[in-house]
Amino acid sequence: MKPARVAPPKTASSDPIQASPLAIQPESLRAFLRLYGVLWSRGVVDHATKEVARIRNARRVDCPICKAIRFAGARREGLTEDVVDRIRDDWAARDLAPRHEAALAAVDAFHDDAGALPDAARRALLAAFTPAERAELGAGIALFMGFSKIAVALGGLPDEIPVHEQPTPDVP
């Protein structure tokens, strides 16, 4: 059952995050945007890999905002809609970069087993990412998952948003 729709505050923003139900609590939204900006603009994981993880999470949570956004930094790094199209439930059967597969396995583990990666997935994550990258990827997945679930649970989101590019989040 879909949650009841709760209209976010009326804003002039064309940014779906700032116009989302998260804007009901502006101070929390500002704190989220700062943390999100640090993750994206000052992180060590490449944007394309973070974007792959973010979009997989979006599909797991079914967040229309998150599914529609493509960050410019990931696009500049070569993330195409062809790659995005492979981030489905059957992603393991698709032709993806090993680094992206390791990130996707981590996203699915966060959703399925509270982070308990199967041994093969854990080995792939250790091989594909440095300790700093693993920490950042884990924090990113937690943010993607938590805040997209907040937006979906609060309702007020459109059923569908066209796919569009947005600037990569930066520290406000």
Short description:
The chain is mainly alpha-helical and 172 residues long.
Please give a handful of descriptors for the protein shown.
172 residues, 2 strands, 8 helices, AhpD-like, disordered N terminus
Could you characterize the architecture of this molecule?
With 172 residues, the chain is mainly alpha-helical. The protein has a domain at 47-166: AhpD-like. The protein is 55% helix and 3% strand. It is built from 8 helices and 2 strands, in the order H-H-H-E-H-H-H-H-H-E. The protein has helices at residues 26-41, 47-61, 64-68, 72-76, 81-85, 98-112, 119-128, 131-154, and strands at 69-71, 164-166. Strands 1-2 form a two-stranded parallel sheet.
Order of helices and strands: HHHEHHHHHE
Secondary structure category:
mainly alpha
Strand content: under 5%
CATH superfamily membership of one domain = AhpD-like
Helical region count? 8
What is the radius of gyration?
A: 16 Å
Distance between the termini: 36 Å
CATH topology of one domain: AhpD-like
Largest sheet, spatial ordering of strands: 1-2
Q: What portion of residues is helical? A: 55-70%
- Oligomer class: single chain
Uncertain regions: pLDDT < 50 for 5+ in a row? Answer: 1-12
CATH class of one domain: Mainly Alpha
Shape: globular
Mean of residue pLDDT?
87
